[in-house]
């Protein structure tokens, strides 16, 4: 009877895993994840620029006795150029990267051709008139591209154009009547450009026509997408309940052997990056950052530097409280990688995967870190995260850097780790007893 129940339980788990894998491997979600990856170094560079401008070149900061105010303000321009070239053109970079990755995932042989067709399609979504303030008077100017439209606020438009435009373009290139052949003696680069000429023209023209009709009605697609798609999704996904649901779901998948980035990455990462970019831009402009939950908040408090389940606390619990030698040996091997947020050794070695006593704290641990970090930030006990940091940045250092030098952030991280050590402890003891019993039985 027990064997039959176990078989049914294993069958249900296997079915769940299969469904999750299918969802994670869905081509558009996979392309979103692949498209974001090449942009991370640029966002980190923007974060470094914000950090330098806000900490070392802040006229009211600790360097005011070393450098003159005029010198610091002048050199802030260098950081602002970097911010404009990375953070404030994020939507342009993303539509190129997404189209290229989606084309590759579709097996299309000319991915750069698709990206070159989709990029101008994205530009057709921009408003023809941009409102600027001159001498406290709002004025509309034509023939201008505003950073505000091609930065953070344009990311969801980039996603829609990148996916729909690429799919349309690839579909059109399969229509033989739309292919222009110049013969076999023509260089391949020239032949490829003529083969995709008509599909590119049709793709851009269709997007331009749609945008033109919307603008005739007094609005623009960029604003409509932001108002009715981007902001509602962001309000749900980066609210405290929505964020916790997605992060815990990602950890649940990881506990069944599916990396959390397969599901949470394509859904959560774009929303967190939007908030992160807003905060970096606000800090660079000298205004109050608007968001608590960001990409850096996730690293610093939610998952303690991208270590799913905050497994650094589990390793500390093993060192302090465990006498089971196999666990202690594994903790020694896992400590080095874990310091730089590589936690697969402990997840698959202990294991946490398919180990019910350890799955429970692994899935629920983000709630503790997130609630403490969120409460501390909302109460003003710690600064908001305004600097994009590499995911391998060690804990404590990460808190200090992500908050642009707030020493209280590492203190909050230490508090979270201490609480998580005792949260993991009873489940660790149960897991030890199960492991010992299984070893004796074997």
Automatic annotation (TrEMBL):
<dbReference type="InterPro" id="IPR003352">
    <property type="entry name" value="PTS_EIIC"/>
</dbReference>
<dbReference type="InterPro" id="IPR051088">
    <property type="entry name" value="PTS_Sugar-EIIC/EIIB"/>
</dbReference>
<feature type="transmembrane region" description="Helical">
    <location>
        <begin position="112"/>
        <end position="134"/>
    </location>
</feature>
<keyword id="KW-0472">Membrane</keyword>
<dbReference type="GO" id="GO:0008982">
    <property type="term" value="F:protein-N(PI)-phosphohistidine-sugar phosphotransferase activity"/>
</dbReference>
<feature type="transmembrane region" description="Helical">
    <location>
        <begin position="235"/>
        <end position="254"/>
    </location>
</feature>
<dbReference type="GO" id="GO:0005886">
    <property type="term" value="C:plasma membrane"/>
</dbReference>
<keyword id="KW-0762">Sugar transport</keyword>
<feature type="domain" description="PTS EIIC type-3">
    <location>
        <begin position="12"/>
        <end position="427"/>
    </location>
</feature>
<feature type="transmembrane region" description="Helical">
    <location>
        <begin position="154"/>
        <end position="173"/>
    </location>
</feature>
<keyword id="KW-1133">Transmembrane helix</keyword>
<feature type="transmembrane region" description="Helical">
    <location>
        <begin position="371"/>
        <end position="391"/>
    </location>
</feature>
<dbReference type="InterPro" id="IPR004501">
    <property type="entry name" value="PTS_EIIC_3"/>
</dbReference>
<keyword id="KW-0813">Transport</keyword>
<feature type="transmembrane region" description="Helical">
    <location>
        <begin position="411"/>
        <end position="428"/>
    </location>
</feature>
<dbReference type="InterPro" id="IPR004796">
    <property type="entry name" value="PTS_IIC_cello"/>
</dbReference>
<dbReference type="GO" id="GO:1901264">
    <property type="term" value="P:carbohydrate derivative transport"/>
</dbReference>
<protein>
    <recommendedName>
        <fullName>Permease IIC component</fullName>
    </recommendedName>
</protein>
<dbReference type="Pfam" id="PF02378">
    <property type="entry name" value="PTS_EIIC"/>
</dbReference>
<comment type="function">
    <text>The phosphoenolpyruvate-dependent sugar phosphotransferase system (PTS), a major carbohydrate active -transport system, catalyzes the phosphorylation of incoming sugar substrates concomitant with their translocation across the cell membrane.</text>
</comment>
<feature type="transmembrane region" description="Helical">
    <location>
        <begin position="36"/>
        <end position="57"/>
    </location>
</feature>
<feature type="transmembrane region" description="Helical">
    <location>
        <begin position="194"/>
        <end position="215"/>
    </location>
</feature>
<keyword id="KW-0812">Transmembrane</keyword>
<feature type="transmembrane region" description="Helical">
    <location>
        <begin position="77"/>
        <end position="100"/>
    </location>
</feature>
<keyword id="KW-1003">Cell membrane</keyword>
<feature type="transmembrane region" description="Helical">
    <location>
        <begin position="304"/>
        <end position="325"/>
    </location>
</feature>
<dbReference type="GO" id="GO:0009401">
    <property type="term" value="P:phosphoenolpyruvate-dependent sugar phosphotransferase system"/>
</dbReference>
<feature type="transmembrane region" description="Helical">
    <location>
        <begin position="345"/>
        <end position="364"/>
    </location>
</feature>
């Amino acid at each position: 009877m027990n064997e039959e129940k176990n078989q049914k339980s294993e069958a249900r788990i296997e079915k769940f895993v299969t469904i999750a894998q299918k969802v994670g491997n869905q081509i558009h979600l996979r392309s979103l994840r692949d498209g974001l990856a090449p942009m991370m170094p640029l966002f980190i560079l923007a974060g470094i620029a914000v950090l330098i401008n806000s900490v070392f070149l802040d006229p009211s900061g600790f360097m005011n006795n070393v450098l003159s105010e005029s010198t610091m303000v002048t050199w802030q321009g260098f950081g602002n150029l970097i911010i404009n070239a990375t953070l404030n053109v994020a939507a342009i970079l993303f539509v190129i990267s997404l189209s290229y990755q989606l084309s590759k995932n579709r097996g299309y042989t000319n991915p750069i051709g698709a990206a070159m067709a989709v990029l101008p399609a994205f530009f057709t979504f921009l408003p023809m008139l941009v409102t600027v303030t001159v001498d406290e008077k709002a004025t509309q100017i034509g023939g201008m591209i505003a950073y505000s439209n091609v930065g953070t606020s344009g990311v969801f438009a980039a996603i829609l154009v990148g996916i729909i435009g690429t799919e349309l373009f690839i579909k059109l290139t399969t229509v033989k009547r739309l292919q222009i052949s110049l013969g076999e003696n023509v260089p391949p680069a020239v032949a490829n450009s003529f083969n995709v000429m008509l599909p590119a023209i049709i793709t851009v023209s269709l997007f331009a026509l749609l945008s033109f009709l919307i603008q005739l009605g007094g609005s623009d697609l960029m604003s409509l997408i932001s108002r009715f798609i981007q902001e509602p999704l962001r309000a749900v996904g980066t609210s405290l309940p929505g964020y916790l649901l997605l992060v815990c779901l990602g950890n649940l998948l990881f506990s069944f052997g599916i990396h959390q980035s397969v599901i949470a990455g394509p859904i959560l990462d774009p929303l967190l990056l939007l908030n992160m970019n807003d905060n970096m831009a606000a800090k660079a402009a000298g205004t109050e950052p608007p968001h608590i939950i960001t990409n850096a908040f996730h690293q610093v408090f939610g998952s303690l530097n991208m270590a799913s389940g905050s497994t650094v606390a589990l390793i500390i619990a093993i060192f302090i409280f465990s006498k089971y030698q196999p666990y202690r040996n594994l903790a020694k091997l896992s400590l080095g990688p874990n310091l730089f947020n590589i936690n697969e050794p402990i997840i698959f070695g202990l294991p946490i995967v398919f180990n019910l006593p350890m799955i429970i704290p692994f899935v629920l641990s983000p709630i503790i870190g997130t609630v403490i970090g969120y409460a501390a930030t909302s109460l003003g006990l710690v600064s908001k995260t305004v600097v994009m940091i590499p995911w391998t940045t060690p804990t404590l250092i990460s808190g200090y850097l992500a908050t642009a030098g707030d020493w209280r952030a590492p203190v909050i991280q230490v508090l979270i780790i201490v609480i998580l050590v005792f949260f993991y402890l009873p489940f660790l003891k149960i897991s030890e007893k199960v492991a010992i019993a299984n070893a004796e039985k074997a």
